[in-house]
Predict the structure.
Amino acid sequence: MTHRIVRATALTGVALLALTACSSPSAETEKPVDGEAKGEVTLWMYPVIRDEAASKSFWEDTEASFEKANPSIDLTIELQTFDKRDEQISAALAANSGPDIVLITPDQAATYLNVGGLLPVDDAIAAERDVFYPATLDAATFEDELYGVPLFQNVFTTAYNKALFEDAGLDLPKTWDDIRDAAPVLAESGAAVLDYVGSPEQTLNLTFYPLLWQAGGTVFSEDGTEIAFDSKEGVEALEFLVDLKKEGGIPADAATQTTGIEGSPVAAGKVGIRSTTSPAELAQMRAALGEDAVVVGPPLKGEAQATYGNPGLLSLTSINKKENRAAAYEVLSFLTSADFQTELNATAGNFPTRTDVEIAGAEADRAAYEAALEVANPGEPNPAARQVMAVLAPYIQAALRGDISAEEALEKAAAEAQAALDRS
């Protein structure tokens, strides 16, 4: 898959003017005369490891290890915070002063590329491209060029309170049809078959979008210029939720439920399935319900099997100079190697972007998360992705409250979202 570029609104007017006033950056690499990459490379790293002290120690060790292996390259890893990340990166690009490499998300890549802020990185992983999960590369591919090397993945899969299903004499549901069949049975005992967090503050990547993808739908058209979530597949996905709500198949307060396990119907043992569950949330469920009461399985399946899994991308900015290009490629290659990903994932609790790196964690959970990696959707990188999500979320909430039909909700949301996309 390749994404086409559409115009962005995420950067400030000053940044847009400063960047578009520059000539288009060249990806051409000056090869060192002696064949050895040399130069200075600055990397802005954002919190991948939650513990601040552990993060500082890990990246200091990484910097030292890289320089020991590459004595002609001076690598500086600067640890940043998520606070005002967009503004910080935009300002650096506009001033043409800052990091050679930056950790960003796929939708940020679409935005910064649109204003000439990124350089292609195909050459950095040319020898190992085939070992990366295809979806992680697709997420950073625009106009047939790669604009970010996937460093890690966050991926989510299905977690079950198996005791609820065992007590009801039911097998664990794997498909939408299974869920529909189980819903009235569990409802008789006062339990919902499926969790749903309907608060607009929650990202749709973890709530409605996986259902949309499972129905065979998409958020945007293939070229990124049209809204597509109001398709028959989109209506089917929202009607699936609305119908479940009517028969007690999702929690009564699903329309306003906020994220989190603690204090939720899941933790109270009143929900059978949490369909997008991270390893950290899985641990919380087991702490609340009992270690043996919770199991994980592959992502749910409607017309298709799908879940959300977003890669963290190491992208090369237009700040990087030709004389440091080969050195930057060496950094990208080192940090996304099999050995380094193994070490990073063990420390940070993330998942690999390479098929030759073993998934960390309990052996009983690995098969489920491996299946999730195979069908993980990184979202649909688009500069207007966040604006569109903000438009759509309240309409889904309204449909769940019964204020509006699923079809009308998506029709109205699509009209507003298309206007926002057109403006961008």
Q: What stands out?
A: The first helix runs from residue 13 to 20. Residues 179 and 287 are 25 Å apart (CA to CA). The chain has 15 helices and 13 strands. The two ends are 23 Å apart (CA to CA).
